[in-house]
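Shift notes (night). Ran Cytochrome P450 while the centrifuge was going.
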Amino acid sequence: MDLTLNAVKGVAQGDVSHVAGAAALLGVLFHLCICQVEFEFIMFHFMAGSTLAFFGMTYVFGFAKTLILAGSFNAGVLTSIAVYRLIFHRCRKFPGPLGAKLTRFYAANLSAKNVQYYKELAKMHSQYGDFVRTGPREISVLRKSAVPLLYGPNSECLKSTWYGQTGNDPKKCSIHMTRDFNDHRLRRRAWDKGFSIKALGTYEPRIKAKADLFKSQLLNNAGKSMDMSAWSMFFSFDVMGEVGFGKDFNNLVSGVEHSAIKGVHSHMAMLGIMSTVPWLLNVLSSIPGAAAGYSEFFSFCAGQIREKHETWDGEKYPQDIVSWLLKAVKEKDVSASPSPAALEDDSRVVIIAGSETTATTLAGALFYLAKYPEKQKKLQQLVDQAIPGGYSQWSYEKVKSVSYIDDVISETLRLRPALLTGGARETPAKGIQVDETYIPGNTNVVIPIHLIQRDARWWHKAEEFIPERFGERRAEMETDKAPYLPFSLGAYGCPGKNLAQLSLRISLSMIAQNFDISFAPGETGEAFDNEVLDTFTVTLPPLQLQFTPRNGN
Ligand code: HEM
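Came back to this:
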């Protein structure tokens, strides 16, 4: 206290050199007081406090002296943070790049190179081993035994600080960003109703109708080069428009991306880079105008919710996912989104989580079928056997009997999961024990899905596309012993898994039955294979394919 008073007196008297050290010391003390607090929770208070203090001091001491004081204080804070993170931090024993130990901006910088953080993570794992410190309190783990600990049904881990990036108030954010275990558990009930067997039954004919539209576009463009990254997106967005909102997004007819979605897509790369420092996005998104690129998407979703409110009929069986969420709100159910803002955020998740993921999987499967014609032939033969009367005799029951479609989907999701490096969880206060390694409490831990699903320790011929490993070669290839989590697992696992599989089975069976798929002239598939962007969900480079109608269909 004396030190502080002397410091203030010193500055007031103009004795600046005296007080710079004291301000630095204050910075150290300040850091020691807050270093056990989750910064994301106090960030806005901190920024408001610093701004007030800066202006107050400028008023009392003048601008130049305030700058010196603030600079010394910040130098003290930063030095203390660096020393703490390197020498005293609970994660100090984990190997990793020096920069990563100091700050998450290291990851942001790696991601900014090519937006391919998954490749950077692979390099770090090959240099440092199965446990890598990728941030001050972030550990990336490549161990099968970590899967149930982080994602299993009895896991005590919660969603990590990554999920605080749109704000930490569970009353205002989507289910996906809800970190509180109980809030999340309650809200999941409303979501799960939208994916029940009965609800899926109402979606199936509408997805088939979209597949038929898709088929006519493939026929119209027969023999021509088509960008399947784009067309898979058109199909999936139209499906989510239909079963998510009961709305026609019209992408398949127009062959153009819906304008509300365009803004989202053009910002995916920036989002991928910035979300490596979760609090940064939280701060930036609160700057007026910073989220302007998303405004059309936001107002589109808000408009859809408004419309649903106005036309609500409580007697009618809900026909789409958002109606299921609204039903919970109307009935004041405990599972309801807790505020209008939360409901709007949920509706945005329906589109983003539901469409991107399914689209990238569909494009991935088509890529493999073009690349491995023998697998394509096998799929076609099996679909033909199940539906000998041709496409006019198509039925979902018949398609479901072709388990090879599921094997193709599963193998695509193994090699090209829709989430490459996302899904971090925070360890409980007591920490977790992964084999010989203890990971301390309140540490953000991730298992990079992309790496562990290609790890040769568990996957035979790990880099090869072999759908049979999920079918007739399951025992021989020891598939059941290998770590596999494309939809994640446990309490926070994907609620839309069955819907995604429904969409993928319908679209893939339609294509296999009606078309031969090949790379268009000039397309090698290499860019599609190697230049995927890690933007939480994957962003795909173009994939030019050619579709030739098969005889008799
Ligand atoms: C092939 C398609 C899909 C894949 C690979 C996939 C994968 C995933 C993964 C890995 C997660 C966990 C994310 C995390 O831990 O942060 C997740 C969560 C989620 N997915 Fe999916 N998903 C797919 C399709 C869908 C569909 C069609 C929907 C429908 C709207 C959907 C809705 C959601 C939601 C709402 C969550 C958040 C769940 C929660 O936090 O409780 N997904 N998905």
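The chain has two domains: 1-88, 175-420+429-549. The chain has 24 helices and twelve strands.
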